[in-house]
UniProtKB/TrEMBL annotation:
This protein's encoding gene: pyrF
Pathway named in the protein's UniProt entry: Pyrimidine metabolism; UMP biosynthesis via de novo pathway; UMP from orotate: step 2/2
Organism: Saccharomonospora marina XMU15
Name assigned to this protein: Orotidine 5'-phosphate decarboxylase
Family, per entry: Belongs to the OMP decarboxylase family. Type 2 subfamily.
A GO molecular-function descriptor: orotidine-5'-phosphate decarboxylase activity
Length: 277
């Protein structure tokens, strides 16, 4: 039985730093690398990136959609990425943003968090907008298998603002209600619980309150979307030690040279290390 996800993540971050490196095989990046935008180009891109950077980061985050776009061949590449990252000692956060109800949500949980599943990752992203309680199958599966979930709360895309900042009653926004529900699941767990949230690094300070979460915070928007290392303390305040700054394009544009990819990762890791002391 593997250790709880919160413990495994805390150990990985203490050893490698908090950077979450994305593997997003966007067609434009494949072209920038001089690769075909087909399954063979996807394979070359994804495996080169994973082999270059996975051993240097605590968390590797493949974006599932870009693999799914290539059908069965793309899913086969995704399986290899998950395996290679695990062998390199990185935790795999599979970015799938799944959200459904009942048996369908249970099927997603089995696919991505179940023991023996070929696509099982250390954690996944999920969407709460069919109701936080609709995520129960994934929350239970993750807890039972020592894995984690990251629930979309206050994301970095501007389209989400109208919904996520809407009044949920009791003086809370929808985003805050999601964070509070995650905090309830994590209460009393040390060093932190298995239910994380997604809060963009591009958000203005003070939009959400994270001190009671007792869980990890995935922070997209760091890098190519505009957020910098200096922004992180302003946005996250006392919750900063639990933040996983996530970036993909800002790293992947340094490919296809593996040495350049590694250098880019180590440069960001060093900046984060100086910030966190």
């Amino acid at each position: 039985m593997r250790e709880a996800f919160g413990k495994r993540l805390a150990d990985a971050v203490s050893t490698r730093g908090p950077l979450c490196a994305g593997v997003d095989p966007h067609p434009s990046l494949l072209r920038d690398w001089g690769l075909a935008t087909d399954a063979s180009g996807l394979e070359r891109f994804a495996l080169t990136a994973t082999e270059a950077i996975a051993e240097h980061v605590a968390v590797l985050k493949p974006q599932s959609a870009f693999f799914e776009a290539h059908g069965a061949a793309g899913i086969a590449v995704l399986q290899r990425v998950i395996g290679l990252a695990g062998e390199a000692g990185a935790l795999v956060l599979l970015d799938v943003k799944r959200g459904d109800i009942g048996s369908t949500m249970a099927a997603y949980a089995s696919a991505y968090l179940g023991e023996g599943s070929p696509l099982a990752a250390d954690a996944i992203t999920v969407s709460p907008y069919l109701g936080f309680d609709s995520l129960e199958p994934a929350l239970r599966q993750a807890e039972a298998t020592g894995r984690g979930v990251f629930v979309l709360a206050r994301t970095s895309n501007p389209e989400g603002e109208r919904v996520q900042r809407a009044d949920a009653g009791g003086g809370r926004t929808v985003a805050q209600s999601v964070i509070d529900a995650a905090a309830l699941r994590n209460a009393g767990t040390a060093p932190m619980g298995h239910v994380g949230v997604v809060v963009g690094a591009t958000n203005e300070p003070g939009q959400v309150e994270l001190t009671r979460l007792n869980g990890p915070i995935l922070a997209p928007g760091f890098g190519a979307q505009g957020a910098t290392v200096r922004d992180l303390p302003l946005v996250f305040g006392d919750a900063l030690p639990r933040v996983l700054p996530a970036t993909s394009r800002a790293l992947l544009r340094h490919g296809p040279d593996p040495a350049a990819l590694r250098a880019a990762v180590l440069s960001v890791t060093d900046q984060l290390s100086q910030l966190l002391g």
